[in-house]
Amino acid sequence: MEKMTPADISTVDAAAALEGWHRARAAYVTGAHGPLSLVFTHWGQAGEEPVAEDVARADWPAHVIFSRLQRDNIDTGELEHGYRIWDTQSPAQQAFQGIGSYGFNPEWIIDAEFEYVDESRFMPFEHLRDSGATRGLPVSGDIVFTLNGVEHRLAAFDAGDKLQLVFADATSRTDTYASGRFLFIPRPDVSADQTPGTRFPVTLDFNHAVVPPCGFSNQMNCPLPPASNRFTEAITAGEKKVIWTEGFSL
User: Fold this and answer.
1) How far is the C-alpha of 120 from the C-alpha of 147, rounded, in Å?
2) What secondary structure letter does DSSP report for 179?
3) Do 229 and 215 form a contact (C-beta atoms < 8 A)?
4) Can you list the pairs that 189-197 forms with residues at least 24 positions away whose Cβ atoms lie under 8 Å?
5) Could you state, in order of their start, the residue ranges of all structural domains in the chain?
6) What global pTM score does this model have?
7) What is the DSSP letter of 195?
8) pLDDT by residue (tens digit) across 26-54?
């Protein structure tokens, strides 16, 4: 038996860590507030009072979970109130067989840079269920890297302490989820007085690319990849599609 090199050991450790990450993902999507449990989303009109919980629950079994949410109206910016119903016994939960994925691929761990632009910059993102309309999301910088001699400048919006990259590639609509996938990247610690144009190193590990929530529930409304985030290459890393029992579809 040949002795393993440090590079071999590193690859084995990374692959094992990725398996643990996949198990955690499965636990999340099947959880009480995981996307497989989401069976209903309701949005009221701008200016309307929130729906009372007992009214919202009236047509659902007693075991379901109720939660509230809110957003700005896509046209006027006025506040809209909504709610969701979650059911761990949903048809999607019962039909779920797992998430298909690629094996660990070190070629898709890419060194990149986050180029700070402006904390107040918002960019339009089309969403799956908004019939072509766009919602402005905070994009305080661009992710820049070179792949096969071509420079890419990606729009990743700010999501707390993460940057959320919505992308599509040559595997979309064939091997992977048709509307694209998500990748979450630790957001660099940018000070309030940082000069626009300053770059910070980031790592894009596409082994952690995920099927978006709308791949698990038709009650989710996910952002779609903008033109800058559509790759001609096949990114053969990360999650592929949800695996359902035969005959089931959302």
Assistant:
1) 29
2) T
3) no
4) 190/116, 190/119, 190/140, 190/141, 192/119, 194/116, 195/116, 196/116, 196/117, 196/118, 197/115, 197/116, 197/117
5) 35-89, 97-244
6) 0.91
7) P
8) 999 999 999 999 999 999 999 899 999 99
